[in-house]
Design a protein that fits this description.
Two copies of one chain form a homodimer.
Chain A lengths: L4 E5 L4 H7 L2 H7 L4 E5 L16 H4 L2 H14 L14 H13 L1 H16 L8 H10 L4 H9 L1 H16 L7 E4 L2 E4 L4 H10 L3
Parallel strand pairs in A: 1-2
Antiparallel strand pairs in A: 1-3, 3-4
């Protein structure tokens, strides 16, 4: 199997959610693995060259409409969340902690968190909501609760985010394969061409 | 024939260039006309809600790479310009002036300006370059020169830009059909679905 695809996302990103429902199937068509990376695109996030997407744009009527329209276009269930954006540190820490132990469980957790937020209208900033999700997946409640705030998982997430910044990630979703970055669901066709035919 | 598609672009926008090479064929497949609108996305441009795309992003290595890659993906000739961005007021005024008289000539002028900048590496901020292009198209050199700076064409372009701001345009390319906005080449598939099957 060739080099994996790195998939960076923020749990608060609607486009990240739409990507999460597509990337594994796309990669599987080309016999590639996907490494999922939860990051947090908050005020602390400082991508290279200050290439930050303005909050006014992310919260705009255009983006709200575009997200809903894109979900229909891709055939993915979507309901505009009541709160947006929300804090995603706890979800991201739990994800990374799980991912270091069992990537399959981590992926199931990520899908459940994204769908709770973007389909069922749950507030995934609340640790109670995240623990409910963990229980549904038969994860150990105490262990997941520990991952929300212990020193090691905080440091683990920070390292993941620092690495993302250093690799040129500046939004969600962001994909890297063989050193090539692709930003957004709308670059999935180009990513797929890259996998099919090589660099262009 | 149903409502036309409004196509907004800045002559300095590489994505605007890539759109200019695709939009008429797409519209023709669905029996739609396209109304071309040159605008200038400079410091004076103040879209609704401050949804301005940051200059750091527009000039980033990512966007430079993405533009070149997208051109290959779409099968459109492209050379990264030596100067970027450049002032496009003169080109936009001449375009709007022409467009009010003869949209076919204006479109030919727009294609020639875009290709001069993004294929042949000419600096389209220079009026001498624009006049050369006008001559190649058998336009009246004196008339075009007048359009660069006379009071009426300045006011005409300003009105076009004010209208774009009021309609929610915030980048290039930007398409509006039946009140629905689509930003970017990457939304052309969604625009096409809209034309095929109606609102979604």
């Amino acid at each position: 199997m060739s080099a994996p695809i790195d998939f960076y996302f923020d749990f608060s990103s609607p486009y990240g959610y739409l990507a999460s429902e597509q990337i594994d199937a796309l990669a599987a068509r080309h016999d590639r693995a996907v490494m999922w990376h939860a990051i947090v695109l908050d005020a602390q996030f400082q991508p290279q060259g200050g290439m930050k997407i303005p909050t006014a744009l992310l919260r705009s009527d255009y983006v709200m409409r575009d997200t809903a329209r894109s979900a229909v276009f891709f055939g993915i269930p979507y309901t505009e969340p009541a709160q947006y954006p929300v804090h995603t540190e706890h979800a991201a820490r739990a994800f990374q902690w799980l991912n270091d132990r069992n990537p399959d469980e981590a992926r199931a957790f990520a899908h459940a968190v994204f769908r709770a937020y973007f389909v069922d209208g749950r507030n995934i900033a609340e640790t109670a909501v995240l623990l409910e999700i963990a229980e549904t997946l038969k994860l150990d409640r105490e262990e997941v609760a520990g991952a929300f705030s212990d020193v090691a998982t905080k440091a683990r997430l920070k390292a993941e985010i620092d690495l993302a910044e250093a690799r040129g990630v500046f939004g969600s979703p962001f994909f890297i394969v063989e050193g090539e970055g692709f930003w957004g669901n709308d670059r999935l066709p180009q990513l797929e061409r890259w996998l099919e035919k090589g660099p262009f």
